[in-house]
């Protein structure tokens, strides 16, 4: 009598090719065991069905017999197949398993969920996936079989959990466990139909059936990644439990050996189903870009270069519990590796984008950029759930373009890495910060592939009180965005919050609530409207060249803004990490972008109504020449449009004149809007719309907060052409606004820098040591 079941005996006594053919037949055999055994015996001499890898269960961790090489194995049982199969008394009727020798779990599973899942809502796992889960969900003892010598028994095992089930490994909630549990929300979806309709709905799936992914059909050649008879993706689509010599029993490699294949034999497993647009050549895929090396001994256990790991750099098909979108280590758990926690997308990015010593990569040549340190600065985007005032993440992408509904950007305001970056399409090259300067996104920009909005305007927008509707603003979705501001405005405009701008929050780690007396968000699409009388050229150029401004001397603008009037700029020319004096270009080891800064509003320099005296830390002087706008002498007097006739005395450059009179009390917000995005003039003004008229972000008498603040001292009463300003064009904001020209020299709080006032061009007598302003 045999001391093992007939299946195990045949395997043990056969050559490896014959073993493989036998196991293959078990996978497809649905006839009675006695007939199956006869077929198997006649089938063994045939040629092998596989070239590589080999089906050799004896040399895998699924050999649970006493001869197995894994830590989970029997104490004395030497039969190999009995743990899963039996030639008699197979006890399952709910699934036509291949002579299955185990009960199926009765547990209710929490299945994968995602707003971007086109195959959902998913039902309970079915088909062959239930067979895998009978061990891997941890609810049934590993050794419990239906038929062991004619009766149900439990084989004694080593290396198991205390209750006889699958051991936890690193931790049942980690991404390094064999015990998936009943919570499958952190595992790749299974038991869903994968067909042409799903591929069309998703937009980034290869259309099945194809050469590599299709349902098994009797008589046809083996399928590389087989769907089941119902055309469903199951565990066995990616895994073959009998394969030896491959990682995790995978039917197809998960690491790249070529950096140019999007499907077929040269592509990784994920790309046989997922057709990721613009992935090839992107910053995370290309061998010439993603050539950073994983640090030896890193806790992820990875080796080689980033490009080789492709999708696995950021995703894991069985990831840490609590993560969204199968993100690797994507929770706020402090453990390494992470064990449970709340969703935290940024933690996946921080695996690489951290300072040397924290990154899992050997960081070199400032690559990859250290983004984590930027979010640790005093002022930063609220990247964590705690800073957003929520548990988890409200981020809710809906499609392959990572779009979100506008309501989720307003009522559920948040910032996640993929609000600004599409990691499947991002390039490595920051925008060109040289003349001619534009607002266009480069084809290989880090923002490449991200969506945004393009506002359009039917005419000039009046600037009513905050919260009033803007009837002339229309929104077009841009997929993908072609300009940086389109990405910013999807959150920082009425597209997100309609007519109810949110209050600014004092986030953990520092927010900008109350700075410059600003407590509520403003509509930046409205502010940058190129129909306004004055705006920074984010959406369009101002068309106000030096000639239009009547500037005949040296340009008062710093590089790269040498073609002022014909240039546009980026939001990130002002917002981002601190930059050196006199430039908006970050240091070479500092990333671009508004991740974090030591200045309020995540600005590259100081912009504070309390800031004084004028110095090189001011934001304005990153683009405007400080020597022109805030110095006592020197330079060309004709370099700004804000100047008057020579009879005004001292200097024609009235910026310099104000500085000479006020000294340490001089500040930009004395006259200019505290929100320097853009502002509209009064269309009734006779000069409105004339070529050289622009409001220059100056505050008028009837302007309201937050653009006018308590620091506002001088108000425009009437407008002049560039180069033709006089005392009578302005009046003081103090004492009821009744003092004009030089007659307000003694205004409280405006101590001066001394010196006599010049002759008045229609403006009255000169001010004495009190420091009179024109």
Notes on the structure:
This protein has helices spanning 6-13, 16-28, 33-43, 128-136, 196-202, 235-238, 306-309, 345-350, 385-388, 406-410, 417-420, 484-489, 494-497, 524-527, 626-629, 654-662; strands at 73-74, 144-148, 151-154, 157-158, 192-193, 213-215, 225-227, 232-233, 293-294, 361-362, 379-380, 452-457, 473-478, 534-535, 596-597, 678-679, 714-716, 730-732. The protein is largely without helices or strands. A two-stranded antiparallel ribbon has the order 1-4. α1 (6-13) packs antiparallel against α2 (16-28). Residues 1-51, 464-471 and 744-774 have low confidence and may be disordered.
Question: Which residues form runs of ≥5 with pLDDT under 50?
Answer: 1-51, 464-471, 744-774
**Spatial shape:** elongated
Instruction: Give the helix level as a range of percent.
Output: 10-25%
Main β-sheet, spatial strand arrangement = 1-4
Oligomerization category of the chains in this entry: single chain
**Discrete helix count:** 16
Mean pLDDT: 82
Which radius of gyration do the C-alpha atoms yield? 35 Å
Q: N-to-C terminal Cα separation, in Å? A: 114 Å
Largest sheet: 2 strands, antiparallel
Strand segment tally:
18
Secondary-structure content class: little secondary structure
